[in-house]
Design the sequence.
């Protein structure tokens, strides 16, 4: 069902929603647009892309998992309230990638992810006009039908489509209209996705000269992973409360495959000691490995946040194009 | 909801000093493990790390841990009787059923002996289940030698042929040089059927496998075990991923035909 209403009326809906749900949306936090709890439509930034992805709402940067005492271990608890999350189509598609890793890989769900993720209801923010670094259309992640409610905001008011009946009563007093969200159909930035058609090409891609340029360019800060909607890697660290006891807790903290010690084992051996090797590892995960393992398309959804974040102006979209070109050259070489 | 990464408390029964830098922790455990599997051990003040089972008994498993890096330091302050938190076992194992009744060549480098130790102990105790065992192990120097009692026992064990070596020095019972130098001494041509298991640092695995192939061993007879950083062991944390493969899920033991295609 579709409805149309004023912003003021939508604010009242948010107020009713907040009796049951915690409502998260992109909002101004200092100089960044980042996900946080919102009370009104005014706070939600619709006309710019958020610098950070919505994943931190249900997959926090730092999360206490367990509490230890001398002889016992106890699981932490989370806020019992469900969550309404305002987000764009690329991010919903990105969250499907996170779900694949946390809920499916290895055949068992990660409880610490599941317990927050299953509380989340998607409120799609209609996204018809592409932003500067977006390339979602090239990645095929510009559209989705996985949302509870879709929202369009313009000068004529707020339009909503309600797909999840749970939310129907919130809007039942509003004027009905035919609204379904439109999706962006063209980005300024277009990429050629590498067509790696044969597993045997992985060895040649591994040896490509193009990775070496990142040895100097990339400083390994991990900023790209931090803003990525599809990056799921983490470390765990144990904290003790004071030196004289073993009481403490285990925390899960986001990790980054671009950090130098991401793959360093005890004893110091690092299997990817050069920044270029780590860039290759990331690029191949986003553009080949994920699909090779799960058959669900590319991991990268083209949100372009990494391109905005990189302090060295490395554009992942350009890396994708370079890899695609190199892959074609490799194919031609093989055919000769 | 059964939490797949919730560790359980286990008592430390015994701590054995193998070398100045390596201790073996014997921990109470009554479940089943297969040769080559690992557990996630909670290292006090640090976090979790994957540690191979280096031996096992009716009611215990042993872990041999090198005192290097910040990861393993916290364990060394623990005493017998203390509680250690752990979860597992994880990963696949060496295909020991497939090894039975044939010849077995085991090549290990340093702490790489830990993941193959329980398998060697098994065949030393059950010689009727194997045609022969060729065991080649290398350590850095005399002070780095691990599992001295086992090395002595394997040298005398029925059907065992052992070659022990040190990287840079000679010593009683030890040759000088790398394990790769001694692959040619294994009479592969005389075996009607055999398997090779290789465990050690990545470079050692690579050189040893290539040396085996050079000596006429076909790749599908070679099995290797990978050591990788892991923060979950259940396919979530991402650290052990190589290409489309997760070492914690599909490994740590791989046939060499697969392992040689895994490019870090």
Sequence:
């Amino acid at each position: 069902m579709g409805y149309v209403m004023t912003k003021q009326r939508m604010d009242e809906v948010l107020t009713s929603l907040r009796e049951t749900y915690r409502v998260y949306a992109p909002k101004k936090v200092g100089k960044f647009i980042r996900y946080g709890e919102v009370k009104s439509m005014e706070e939600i930034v619709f006309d710019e892309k958020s610098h950070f992805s919505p994943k931190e709402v249900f997959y926090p940067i730092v999360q206490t998992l367990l509490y230890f005492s001398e002889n016992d271990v106890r699981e932490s608890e989370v806020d019992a309230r469900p969550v309404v999350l305002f987000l764009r189509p690329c991010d919903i598609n990105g969250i499907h990638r996170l779900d694949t890793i946390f809920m499916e890989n290895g055949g068992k769900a990660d409880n610490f992810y599941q317990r927050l993720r299953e509380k989340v209801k998607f409120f799609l923010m209609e996204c018809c006009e592409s932003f500067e670094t977006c390339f979602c259309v090239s990645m095929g992640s510009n559209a989705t039908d996985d949302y509870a409610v879709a929202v369009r905001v313009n000068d004529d008011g707020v339009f909503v489509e309600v797909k999840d009946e749970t939310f129907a009563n919130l809007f039942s007093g509003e004027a009905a209209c035919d609204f379904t969200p439109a999706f962006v159909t063209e980005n300024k930035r277009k990429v050629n996705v590498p067509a790696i058609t044969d597993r045997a090409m992985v060895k040649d891609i591994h040896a490509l000269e193009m990775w070496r340029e990142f040895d100097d360019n990339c400083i390994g800060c991990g900023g790209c992973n931090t803003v990525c909607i599809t990056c799921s890697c983490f470390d765990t660290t144990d904290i003790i409360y004071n030196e004289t006891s073993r009481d403490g807790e285990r925390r899960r903290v986001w990790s980054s495959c671009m950090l130098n010690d991401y793959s360093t084992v005890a004893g110091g051996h690092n299997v990817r000691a050069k920044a270029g090797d780590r860039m290759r590892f990331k690029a191949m995960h986003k553009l080949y490995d994920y699909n090779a393992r799960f058959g669900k398309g590319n991991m990268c959804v083209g949100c372009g946040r990494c391109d905005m974040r990189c302090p060295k102006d490395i554009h992942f979209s350009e890396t994708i194009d370079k890899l695609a070109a190199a892959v074609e050259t490799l194919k031609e070489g093989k055919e000769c | 909801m059964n939490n797949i990464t919730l560790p359980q408390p286990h008592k430390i029964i015994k701590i054995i000093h193998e070398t100045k830098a390596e201790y073996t922790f014997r921990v109470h455990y009554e479940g089943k493990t297969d040769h080559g599997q690992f557990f996630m051990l909670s290292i006090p003040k640090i976090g979790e790390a994957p540690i191979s089972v280096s031996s096992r008994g009716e009611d215990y498993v042993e872990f041999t841990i090198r005192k290097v890096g910040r990861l393993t330091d916290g364990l060394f302050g623990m005493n017998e009787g203390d509680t250690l938190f752990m979860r597992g076992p994880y990963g696949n194992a060496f295909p020991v059923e497939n090894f039975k009744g044939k010849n077995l060549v085991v090549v290990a480098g340093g702490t790489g002996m830990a993941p193959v130790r329980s398998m060697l102990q098994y065949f030393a105790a059950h010689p009727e289940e194997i045609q022969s065992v060729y065991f080649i192990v290398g350590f850095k120097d005399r002070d780095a030698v691990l599992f001295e009692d086992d090395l002595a026992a394997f040298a005398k064990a029925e059907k065992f042929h052992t070659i022990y070596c040190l990287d840079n020095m000679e010593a009683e019972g030890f040759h000088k040089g790398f394990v790769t130098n001694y692959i040619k001494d294994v009479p592969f041509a005389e075996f009607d059927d055999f398997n090779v298991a290789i465990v050690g640092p990545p470079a050692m695995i690579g050189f040893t496998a290539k040396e085996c192939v050079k000596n006429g061993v076909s790749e599908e007879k070679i099995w290797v075990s990978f050591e990788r950083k892991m923060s979950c062991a259940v396919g979530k944390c991402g650290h052990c991923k190589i290409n489309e493969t997760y070492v914690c899920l599909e490994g740590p033991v791989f046939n060499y035909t697969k392992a040689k295609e895994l490019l870090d």
Observations:
- Residues 32 and 231 of chain A are 20 Å apart (CA to CA).
